[in-house]
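[Automated response] Your request has been received and processed.

Submitted sequence:
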Amino acid sequence: MIFLNVFIVLLLFVGCTKNIPTPQEREKNLFSLIEKENLTQFDIQTSTFNIFSLQTNLNSCKNKDIKIYIEGDGLSWLSRRTISDNPTPINPLSLKLMNQDKSQCKVYLARPCQYTNSMMCDKKYWTSHRFSKEIISSYNESLDFIKKEYKNSSFTLIGYSGGGAIVTLLSATRSDIDSFVTIAGNLDIEKWTTMYNLSKLDGSLNPADYSKKLENIKQFHMIGSDDRIIPKDIFLSYFSKFDRKDKISFELFKSDHNCCWEEYYKEVLNRRK
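Generated structure:
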């Protein structure tokens, strides 16, 4: 049973080790998704990592809210025992979500070492340390850079899968977050590793530990009813940590971890117009 559970979780990373696209092919795929989008590539240099970004023209976003889309864990593993040399995603779902959003002020941020490289790109940063202090610090620096450059008033953060953990941790550390949204988000790392009998992510922060700092921030969580990678129990464990729950809303969708989130997210955006 343990090996079955581990295998199910590893489907998050890759379904088959054969015919895995090269990093160059994965990057080509990303740019094919934005051919009709008015987005510009810009690598944000932080004190630790270079963060790959795609941005709209943000010059008109002064004193406005900027939406930040943060990618999932990407290709972290090649097999049950083999860590990927490059975590660039095969399916950049957060970018696909952003493409559904017709807002003018929006930015896509990849995870560290996706679509780019730096001296800090050790494999631990897409495995045990994927939600580490260094990772969160690099995103804080990225948001500080955007805010200094474009003078926006606030951010709305949107994160898919492991990106959901990142946006939650960022929201707990900043005072300029208007709200955040997670899609199939990994919000209780300890619960997740325990549920699937996985090694602890000892180098990572756990979003569920920050309930006190998050209880005054508006948050919306999209959960897949058929998600066997991040099942609803992970969200419910996170939710249970809050004394005040009035700022938290969530919705179950007929989805697994990967399928159909673009359609459901588009529905949510249309509802919120």
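Summary generated for your ticket: The domain at 2-271 is CATH 3.40.50.1820 (Rossmann fold). The radius of gyration is 17 Å.
If you did not submit this request, please reply to this message.
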